Each structure stands twice: as C-alpha cells, then as structure tokens.
Amino acid sequence: MKSLAELSAIRDRMKGKVAIREGSGETRIVVGMATCGIAAGARPVLNTFVEEVEKASLTGEVTVTQTGCIGICRLEPIVEVIKEGEEKITYVKMTSEKALEVMEKHIKGGKPVLEYTISATEK
Asked: Residue 66 forms beta bridges with which residues?
C-alpha cells in the first residue's frame, strides 16, 4: 500500500498528462490506436508525444488524443496533426524517434516533416 504522500505525488504527476489528453488546445495530435496501430507500435509514439508536450510546457496549446482505426492499416502507426486554420497533416509509419522530430520541427517550429507524411509515401 502506498502512503498518502506517495499517492498525492502520483496524482500530481499524472494531472499534467491527463490535461494533455483531454485538453482543447488549438493544435491536436491524434494517434491511431486501433488494434492495427497498437500492433505496429503506436503506443510508444503516443507516449512520446504526451511526454514531449509536457516537457515543452505546451499543455494549454497542444492536445494529444487517440482514435480508433484511421483506415490505412498498412501505413501504421499513423499520426494526424490538426492545427486551427491549417490543413491536416497525416504522418505514417511513425516511430518514437520520428515523433521527436515532428515535435521539434512541426509542433514547435511550424514546419511539417514532409518525408514522413502520407503524400510522400504515396508517390
């Protein structure tokens, strides 16, 4: 059994992660987490985005959520980045390493990482 202080510390640590997952920021990162996405490695990708948004103190601006099947299973894990007033960007065959790059270049820097997008894959 955990002490009251330990439980309180756990609650405080998790509050930020819950806010990231339930927020209403102007940028949304949506990770496909159906069976196909999970089998392809979507869980570490989702965790990387949550951790990086928290590290960058972007919890009020960026929301990380999950969805079911996006419909193109052969390209899983799939991540959609939706920014208000901009066209949705769909990233495919994502990894935690690619998620870090997307965070730096697209989410923080405003420049999509085109080589990881569905349009680059479909050429």
From this structure: 31
Contact between 70 and 19 under an 8 Å Cβ cutoff? The reply is no
Q: Are 29 and 107 in contact (CB under 8 A)?
A: yes
Q: Is the dihedral of CA 41, 102, 112, 66 positive or negative?
A: positive
Which tens digits make up the pLDDT trace of 4-46?
777 677 666 655 555 444 555 689 999 999 999 999 999 999 9
Q: CB neighbours (10 Å) of residue 61? A: 13
Give CA–CA dist 53/40, Å, rounded.
22
Structural tokens at position 80? 């959609």
- Calculate the alpha carbon distances from 40 to 11, 12, 46, 65, 104 in Å: 30, 31, 12, 18, 23
Q: How far apart are CA 8 and CA 24, in angstroms?
A: 25
Query: Which residue type, as a one-letter code, is found at position 46?
Result: L
pTM, rounded to two decimals: 0.79
Tens digits of per-residue pLDDT, 81-117? Answer: 999 888 999 999 999 999 999 999 999 999 999 999 9
